[in-house]
Task: inverse folding
């Protein structure tokens, strides 16, 4: 029962952090992502990132439900572990991450962000091809 509650808690807190439209959460999250990784809908840079490449990476991680679930589950399990005994906490952590990621994919959380990240991948492939480098066959789509 405890493991089920942990899985559901991680899924809920990850949803709040990544996809919730509740204004006290959405407004600061979107502001932070725009500040760390300023891009338009097509994935083109619209300004300088505050922390450079590190800021762009953190901005990406804030919008990724799989990535965020790893941090959220670590925090939830750590806090739970202080009051009760979590059986095999590292395995529960991995399971909670996987459960939340699968749920996020099924529910379509971050779908717009996924498309934006795919646009970045295509732009990077085009940039590499234009420099004359041959891409490996598994990178071609």
Result:
């Amino acid at each position: 029962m405890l493991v089920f509650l942990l899985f559901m808690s991680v899924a809920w807190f990850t949803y709040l952090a990544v996809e919730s439209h509740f204004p006290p959460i959405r407004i600061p999250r979107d502001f932070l992502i725009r500040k760390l990784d300023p891009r338009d809908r097509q994935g083109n840079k619209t300004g300088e990132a505050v922390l450079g490449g590190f800021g762009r990476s953190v901005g990406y991680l804030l919008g990724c439900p799989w990535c965020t679930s790893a941090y959220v589950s670590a925090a939830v399990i750590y806090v739970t572990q202080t009051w009760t005994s979590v059986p095999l906490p590292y395995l529960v952590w991995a399971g909670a991450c996987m459960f939340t990621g699968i749920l996020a994919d099924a529910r379509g959380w971050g779908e717009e962000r996924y498309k934006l990240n795919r646009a970045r991948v295509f732009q990077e492939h085009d940039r590499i091809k234009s420099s004359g480098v041959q891409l490996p066959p598994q990178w071609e789509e």
